[in-house]
Amino acid sequence: MEALLVDDVEPCKGGSTQAHHLPSVSPSSTLDLILPPTLTPAPPRRSEASGSQHSLWILEGGSAVSSAGASDLWEEGECFIAHLGQECDWGEPVASPQLMKLPEGLAPVVEVAAGNLHTLLLSASGRVWSCGGGWEGPLGHGDAASLSVPRAVHGLADLRIDHIAAGGAHSLAVSSSGELWSWGWGRHGQCGHGDTQSVYHPRRVEGVGAIVQASAGAAHSLVLSSDGQVLSFGRADAGQCGHGGREPSVLQPRRVQALASVQVVALSASGDWSEVTSGGPDGHVFGWGRRPADGEFSLLPSIQPAIQAAIQQASATHQAHS
Predict the structure, then answer these.
(1) pLDDT band at 31 (very low <50, low <70, confident <90, very high)
(2) What are the tens digits of pLDDT across the range 34-84?
(3) What pLDDT, in 10s, does the model give residues 172-210?
(4) Domain count, the chain
């Protein structure tokens, strides 16, 4: 099979690129959202995850993980499915969840993350495991080989990892001491090391302080510091880094100044879109980048009423049934 380069494939297909700007929030207009500085807690670990090609579920208290999905890659009538971790590189799409092959020492699994064509798993011991497509290094094993069964990422063996995130073809990990590590596809600076090189072994990201949360989009990354500040890096041509312009890339972590006075408690990156939630009883949801629903984009964080209303409705429904 001819080698596939991730640089030749856009990990996420966005909508219209026309500049339909959404209302944005400037630093001076966030005074009503200011909260006292507090330490931001680490997020709850994800027991399920979905990428553009597959989904993952932790079962039975972490003793098992199931996966389902496929990919857009075909060879001689078979689909690439190594990211499902079911001991098969190529085969039929898996329509209903099937158990992954968990090597000895991996279980119990406490968190899962799904990239486009790779999977990350976090064990209770703080070890990171990966499988799937190895092109450009998102598995972190030092080469571009693909794996159909998870393997421990030895470059993180001396660390205890608390949180993982998988992007289009790059990976992030947050250690128990607040260090941020990244590896994989780096064409747009999404690994945060100041260049556009792909990284085949986990490498510590400098200049970010103590990190408690991380999230990875198609080709950009968001991280949240312990004092509630958001930093972003990577592809920025649709405003997904939130710095107010359409520069091609942000190669090193940069604080999102429009949120400097907002106490952020959670964040999420997906495709070319970014989203954060502020704390307090009147917390707001801010979004920026290319909106998945219609392709419109915002260059600066803007309050998302529809998303906020959906969250409030879900919360009210939960309380009514509790």
Answers:
(1) very low
(2) 333 456 767 788 899 999 999 999 999 999 999 999 999 999 999 999 999
(3) 999 999 999 999 999 999 999 999 999 999 999 999 999
(4) 1
pLDDT at residue 292, rounded to an integer? 85
The residues facing 154 across adjacent strands are none
CA max distance for the chain: 59
Domain interval for residue 172: 41-226
Task: Return the SS3 of 176.
Answer: coil
User: In whole angstroms, what is the distance from residue 229 CA to residue 268 CA?
Assistant: 14
Residues 6+ apart with CB under 8 A from 106: 121, 123, 127, 129, 150, 152
Strand partners, 80: 90
Question: Residue 252 domain-assigned?
Answer: no
In a domain, 118, yes or no: yes
CA 216 to chain centre: 3
Sorted by sequence, the CB contacts under 8 Å of residue 173 that are 6+ apart come out as 128, 156, 161, 163, 164, 165, 180, 181, 182, 202, 214
Tokens of 264: 């952020």
What is the pLDDT, as a whole number, of residue 39? 61
Write the CATH number for 104.
2.130.10.30
Q: Look at residue 58 and tell me if it is in a domain.
A: yes
DSSP 8-class letter at 138:
T
The answer to whether position 29 is within a domain reads: no
Gyration radius of the chain's alpha carbons: 19
CB 300 within 8 A of CB 244: yes
> Which has more confidence, 312 or 161?
161
| CB-CB contact of 287 with 273 (8 Å) | yes
Question: Which value, to the nearest 10 degrees, does the dihedral of the CA atoms of residues 10, 14, 20, 25 take?
Answer: -90
Q: What is the mean pLDDT of the chain?
A: 85
Residue with tokens 């990190």: 211
Question: DSSP class of residue 311?
Answer: H
Q: Write down the pLDDT at residue 11.
A: 37
